[in-house]
Amino acid sequence: MRVNSNVTMRELGMANVKEGIDDTFSDIIKLERHCKFSNCRHETEPGCAVKAAIQSGELSAVRYELYKSLGRENTNNYAMKKEISKWTKAYKKSIRRVRDE
Ligand SMILES: [Zn+2]
Predict the structure, then answer these.
(1) Which residues neighbour 14 within 8 Å (Cβ) at sequence distance 6 or greater?
(2) CB 21 within 8 A of CB 85
(3) What's the 84 CA to ligand 1 centre distance in angstroms?
(4) Domain count, the chain
(5) What is the Cα–Cα distance from 79 to 67, expressed in whole angstroms?
(6) How many angstroms is it from 67 CA to the middle of ligand 1?
(7) Is the pLDDT of residue 79 over 80?
(8) Range of the structural domain that residue 68 is part of
(9) Whole-structure pTM over 0.70, yes or no?
(10) What is the 18 CA–ligand 1 centroid distance (Å)?
(11) CA of 35 to the centre of ligand 1 (A)
(12) CATH number, domain with residue 18
């Protein structure tokens, strides 16, 4: 059963990374589910929940730009997710630093 437990460990590790990314952008991911079109690019589509949230101030346009710049297609890639996680941590740290000064 050693092989099985190894697989589980690896899957758990991947799940943690995935959760980190999903947590970081969980509000945007949630909003995307409310878009009229499932393939919505949040640009000119009607019934876009993301654009509506930015307009109402519910979602920070800066955070959305960050999310977008990381590439939604690429977020499906495990290696990319690790990079995003690192990047997000650095980004959060830099925000905190600005606030503290
Ligand atoms: Zn949208």
Answers:
(1) 78
(2) yes
(3) 21
(4) 1
(5) 16
(6) 13
(7) no
(8) 2-100
(9) no
(10) 22
(11) 5
(12) 1.10.40.50
Report the distance separating Cα 11 and Cα 63, nearest Å.
29
Neighbours of ion ligand 1 (CB under 5 A): 35, 40, 42, 48, 50
Segment 44-60 shows an average pLDDT of: 94
CA distance 53 to 35: 11
Report the pLDDT averaged over residues 9-21.
57
Place of tokens 């997000």: 88
Grouping H, G, I as helix, E, B as strand and the rest as coil, residue 45 is coil
User: What is the 54 CA–ligand 1 centroid distance (Å)?
Assistant: 11
Amino acid letter, 17: V
Distance 55 CA to ligand 1 centre (A): 12
